[in-house]
Amino acid sequence: MTMCPLYVEKERHVKANAWDYNAKFCYADNHIKTSKYNIFTFLPINLFEQFQRVANGYFLVLLILQLIPEISSLSWFTTIVPLVLVLLVTAVKDATDDYFRHKSDQQVNNRQSQVLIRGSLQNEKWMNVRVGDIIKLENNQFVAADILLLCSSEPYGLCYIETAELDGETNLKVRQALTVTSDLGDITKLMNFDGEVICEPPNNKLDKFTGTLYWRDNKYPLDNDNMLLRGCVLRNTEWCFGMVIFAGLQTKLMQNCGRTTFKRTSIDKLMNTLVLWIFAFLICMGVVLAIGNTVWESWIGRNFQVFLPWDESQRSAVFSGFLAFWSYIIILNTVVPISLYVSVEVLRLGHSYFINWDRKMYHSQTDTAAEARTTTLNEELGQVEFIFSDKTGTLTQNIMVFRKCSIDGRTYEVSQKTACVDFSFNPLCDRRFRFYDSTLVEAIKLEDPAVQEFFRLLALCHTVMPEEKSEGHLVYQAQSPDEGALVNAARNFGFVFRARTPETITLCEMGQAVTYQLLAILDFNNVRKRMSVIVRNPQGQIKLYSKGADTVIFDRLDPSSEDLMYTTSEHLSEFAGEGLRTLALAYKDLDEDDFEIWMKKLLFASTVIENREDQLGALYEEIEQGLKLLGATAIEDKLQEGVAETIACLNLADIKIWVLTGDKLETAMNIGYSCNMLRDDMNEVFVVSGHTLQEVQQQLRSAKEHILGLSRVGSAGDVEKTDMFLHDSVFEETIIAEYALVINGHSLAHALEPLLEHILLDVACLCKTVICCRVTPMQKAQVVELVKRHKRAITLAIGDGANDVSMIKTAHIGVGISGQEGTQAVLASDYSFAQFRYLQRLLLVHGRWSYFRMCNFLCYFFYKNFAFTLVHFWYGFFCGFSAQTVYDQWFITLFNIVYTSLPVLAMGLFDQDVDDRTSLRYPGLYKPGQQNLLFNKRLFFLCTLQGMGTSFLLFFIPYGAFSVMVKEDQQAFAVTIATSLVIVVSVQIGLDKHYWTAVNHLFIWGSVTVYFAILFAMQSNGMFGILPSNFPFVVLLSCCSTTFTTLAFPPTASRKREGPQGQNLRRVRRTSSRRSAYAFSHQQGYGELITSGKNMRASAVSSAHSPGRTPHSSNWIENMLKRKNEVSCISDESGDRAKNRLPSSSTEPELH
């Protein structure tokens, strides 16, 4: 394999049929790899990725600490079991995803393609195709690489492709080979083809290609119309040949497979902060207990060094405290259990499936179901404050119908009171087309030159592809619904577009076939906002036909059209006032000599590699001057079903809706009135249309003064974000009057500058409705970014077209609508569905439920883990701060992953305070999510306080009950606390639930049953045979006390839980028992034990450990068997106590 130096490719040189020449550039082969791992790299790479999460790294550090004998108070399996489980589940998921990527890669790489090799076509796998190869494609085949079209089975080297995999658009597009290569259909000619292409380096611009073909001492310009990109499908073309320019990972399709920006919810960010707080709290508890250990070892522990000497490594009491600190960090780490992160992901996945399965968001006409394309943003759907919506195709249907037109100063309108026009004179008309002004047909029949030129322009100036499936049955493949509607209108009025070649356009004008020579196409783009064609008619005249936005066309008119322009402008205002989409039409007669000079300039500019688009734009501008106005068209785009009702409902939920559209101001405003965003009873509708920065600033300042009712607003307040009340959402809510802001694109460009962006945001947020018209895709994203940057609010962007992708990606949540403009918006979105009205259900039902369930889940999860963990903290004061645990190690391991996992998941998945109908009927229920009322730092503090109070009661009630006999059976003390804890947290989740289902009952009571089953299985003679008779009473007392505390301070409507009051805690505390574990264990004194000599049997064992840090037994069964053997051998009670102490249980404190 040839080794190639690394270099930045500035331009690409590719020569046909010259493998040695192309090999020296080391271009990528056609093998693709979207998978991340292989069998050797999976384990290290996947583990490395997983430990990028702070939580996993945190638990790995804990595991390492537990492997250090001097500080470990828990066996390593208490951490490694849940950690390995999490890592294993994630690894299996990643491996499964990567396996399917491997299968997909293998399937694509092994596709067959016909490659011209040594004079014949040979089948080769796609991965073996190289740059410079000539390949053959057949109908309905995928294009293997980015290729330059050389020739095809169609006349003039035409071919048709479907680009759904690239941009989601299913309409066919035409591509054309250069005339000089269009006759290379013979294998021999193709083998002798040695042209060289010099073009741009690999990039991700799907709609742009710049290159030049050098062949036979000539050079020919290449653009995107000559290219077939990987991922396209050849349609309606028997075969074609192409030359590979980009292969594999350097194709435009693969260059666009970049990573999508990872979006995180506000709850995720809050949880990160809370975890840091908890970690700080954990450190504080460790420090307190470590100081207690140091003090205890200094004052009391040194008295026992005669028979319990320190380890050799333990040099002082301070060092003992240092070791105790790390031991308590290990023991108390469950305040942030790893199962929290697993549970959150499971809940989000479940909420996503609920969205996918919702039949009320299924659109039967298009067979489109709602889809959650991400699982990380569900609860954020319940907190949205700003919606940024496209208009065309999002609020409207994007099904265009030709309704009205203005020709030579006269309007032709639809009036359904009259009979429909009879188009029987035209055998090629569309039977579904309806028009009600018969005077227009009469004008055509009378051969009115202006009317005929009007429809001739519509039939010629476009990029539509015709498909005649049968005689007279025409189907138009249009890149936009607007173009299709205009060409179809011309068809019905007698100017039928029949056929197209790279050099001609054939029309059927009033039954007569007429062929025009196509000289140039000046294509549409977002900057030009117009399209022109230059044709030569059968009489030899050269004409330029142009259509576009009225403001653009009017600026380029000849002075002779000035009067007609004013008349047409009035008509356009009327059309736009009715919500119709308008275009202006104009033409120009070209002089033969001037056109020849211009064509030479165009040919030169089209072969330039650098700044080709700028030079071509300047030439287009040069020839599109002095136009003569013909008239204007008006197309209707109806509102989607339920749009007005959805917007009204979302407004009641305090969600602000901003419309960002490319339509003209009048059209946008009319749609605003149609969907009730604008109303006649509004106090004021501010229209900002200034052309300079000063004009825009003055208009925004006047609007601000009017809203606030102030006599003067200082310029400093306009520029700086320092107003004392404008940035207070409460103040915004106090404005009772309703205002609307409408701003157009050129004014918005000034308003988005740093000098004015703050006053723009202030005015917009004080208005009920905001409509931005004539905006570019980049301006849409800038508006969203402005709100994200300066407002603490969740934003949602919704659209259906490629021009909405930047806005969708910029917002916190992106929603794509599967509409008439392809699926580019859907592919870039987080959620997708077919109709705008489904947004109401997505937010008010699924979003609200997800937020409600996640908040309740987190509140309860933190509560139960504080209640579970802080028992160890209280116990530290009674075991000489020796880092002993209250619970058995298996209980610690299973508490979060077995005993309490399913009930809390059931609550997080199925709980609901009201049903979906009530949520939609009362939109005000959505407001708590916007204000973060259900889970915030204050509620977190209250939940943890309640958990601390519960842990206090759970420890001290059994402690008081077992104070006399706990030294004989400490295990009963531990099991009592554990059982009380399981019952209490189960009762608590029952009290927290709003909606009981069979699943909830099964999980809650099933988990309690599983706990008792495991507890029974771990005892040799059965639980009640070995535990004291007062066990049920103590458990009942503990449960009742903690439950009473909860009922005495019930959660409020906003789910604010109050913890037990301090005096209740102090009432239970026994101050006389605050002593070390040794004092607790030997309240009758040490004399009899020492003088009897019975402790000497295990002196070797005792001397090997520091005080209070004893070796661990494996489980309760071994501990119980050992105790029974000792009891049978020693009848003396004091000896019995000594033998129970010296073996020292591991997981239980020294309270035998």
Counting DSSP E segments of at least 2 residues, the number of strands comes to 33
Biggest sheet descriptor: 9 strands, mixed
Rg calc? 39 Å
Strand content: 15-25%
In which order are the strands of the major sheet placed? 14-33-32-31-15-27-30-29-28
What share of residues is helical? 40-55%
Separate helix tally:
43
Structurally, how many domains make up the residues?
5
Characterize the overall form: elongated
- The helix-and-strand class reads alpha+beta
Ends distance = 74 Å
Question: Runs with pLDDT <50, length 5+?
Answer: 710-731, 1051-1152
GO molecular function: ATP binding; ATP hydrolysis activity; flippase activity; magnesium ion binding; phospholipid transporter activity
Active site: 390 (4-aspartylphosphate intermediate)
Family: Belongs to the cation transport ATPase (P-type) (TC 3.A.3) family. Type IV subfamily.
Binding site for Mg(2+): 390, 392, 800, 804
